[in-house]
Amino acid sequence: VSGESSALTLLSSDVVVSTEPDYKAWAVMSLPPSDPLYSIQWNMEMIGAPDAWENLPDTLPTITVAVIDSGMCFNHPDMQGAYSSFQRDYVEDDNVPQDEFGHGCSVTGVIASQNNNLGTIGVAPFVEIMPLRVLDETGSGVYSDIAGAILDATSNGADIINLSLGGYAQSNLLRSAVNYALSHGVYVVAATGNDGFS
To answer: 5 or 68: which carries more pLDDT confidence?
Structure first.
């Protein structure tokens, strides 16, 4: 609603439970590696990824990771076949979550770059990515879009929700959305500490 609408006016309605400002959130980033060779992906050994891959069962269930971020790179060769059929762009209100900032592409690549002799490999190259774009070309977005994406991810089969973004305001709306996901057995993983404050 516009800034002229007062919280008291809204709360007098039978359909309004609570009100709060629609706070801003931003992409939380650290410098991504720029070289596409696995041999220099030192982090994989550090976190034990190769050991985990070796101990995977022969048959894996489909695990869907909703990446709530700045979108996806449709044509990236290392991500072909990695995306789920449910995709949403809350910034432009359509079903084409093309990344115009780059952070979402980076995050999805870290998670699920395919094991296909190209570029790098993701930590979990076998998962399916559900791309939900809530951050615009500047890397910022609003809490209401993030909350909506959490609800949609939960309703559309996400097993895990990744939030590599952050904001500084407490929000009952966001807390309720996260609690909804958790109450439906969805794991929610969020960034913290990248800026030295949160």
So the answer is: 68
The structure's pTM equals: 0.82
Residue holding tokens 């995709």? 87
Q: Which amino acid is present at 90? A: Y
Beta carbons within 8 Å of 112's beta carbon, 6+ residues apart: 65, 79, 82, 122, 123, 124, 125, 126, 127, 128, 129
- 9 CB-side CA count, 13 A: 6
The whole-angstrom separation of Cα 63 and Cα 82 is: 11
Q: Which two tokens stand for residue 79?
A: 């991500």
> 165 - beta bridge partners?
27
Do 152 and 158 contact (CB within 8 A), yes or no? no
Nearest of 26, 5, 36, 19 to residue 135 by alpha carbon: 26
Cα-flanking dihedrals φ and ψ of residue 153, to 5°? -60, -45
